[in-house]
């Protein structure tokens, strides 16, 4: 989902009032309980008063059709320190559609690009798993737990501190490219093909909330079937939300997450390097027969045979992620280290060599290559 932020004003009173009875909002935000009469108006007034001085700000988040999907909040800006606290609230009707991540990423861009801040942070209740997931997906790094940090109705709660720095934006790829593609592109909603073209444009964008997609000529789309998943991306071209209600196909192969960028690739190469992986002094894997996966913009990943991994120490989790270059990954945890390792049971043909092998986040483990300890790379996955 794409969102745009507009400063909170009295025109958003009704939208805010609609949030104030939601149980999740009342539990996990600083909205007082019971909600005082006129609270929405005073909330808007507080941000309006702070806006000229730049010490706080608040925004309504709207989808491409102008519908209210939530709030983006900046409770405190410390201009001297170059940092700010951020927060967001997703309207109940917009949940499960990627609105939280879109709001947080738009708010992060505002803070870093428009305000020039050098650190932004979130304070998230330890029980608020949904917000922790959004923070992870937006590239935030979990710094730790602040005990008894939040007080509400005389009840103290532990909170997690998550932060984002300009350097956490990750690798820089060429952006803003629009180029024709020879690939046959189709989009399917249910059992119906709603787009079918051999003259799509590849639109390459990277950054928070920005990933490559295809722009499809309007003449090649069933415009009578367009729903909330469709967005006009150029004057006479449309695109669709990925993995939310529609399925994308390049030729006869389904593609997930985003369009493949021809300037980004993944190479899976057999290796004879000696790889040793440990956590807190416990050896989890050791192998002389890894497959090294080199993916543009990311550190190398070492995929080890399952026989060389202490699977008895790793517990499967319910987490699954998709990658347009590799396929669908399943995850394993080690003790308190959630989703530390992953594997692909059915990788895409281009990286078939990693099938059923186990890889670990080098950002969170101790890695030795040929007996030499490696520094932990800094990426959006350096969160634990």
Q: Can you give keywords for this protein?
A:
mainly beta, five-stranded antiparallel sheet, 12% helix, seven-stranded mixed sheet, 40% strand, 384 residues, globular, 27 strands
Characterization of the model:
The protein is mainly β and 384 residues long. It is built from five helices and 27 strands. It has helices at 13-17, 23-28, 39-50, 99-114, 129-137; strands at residues 4-7, 57-62, 68-78, 83-90, 119-125, 141-152, 155-164, 177-180, 185-189, 192-197, 201-204, 213-217, 230-234, 237-240, 247-250, 253-255, 266-270, 275-279, 282-287, 291-295, 301-303, 315-323, 327-334, 337-343, 359-360, 366-369, 372-373. The longest helix is centred in the first third of the chain and has 16 residues, at 99-114. Mean pLDDT is 89; it is low at 171-175.
Amount of helix: 10-25%
Residue fraction in strands: 35-45%
Mass-distribution shape:
globular
User: How widely separated are the two ends?
Assistant: 27 Å
**Please, what is the average pLDDT?**
89
Strand order of the main beta sheet, please? 1-2-3-4-5-7-6
Topology, number of strands? 27
Q: What structural category characterises the helix and strand content?
A: mainly beta
Secondary structure tally, helices: 5
Radius of gyration from the CA trace?
23 Å
Biggest sheet character: 7 strands, mixed
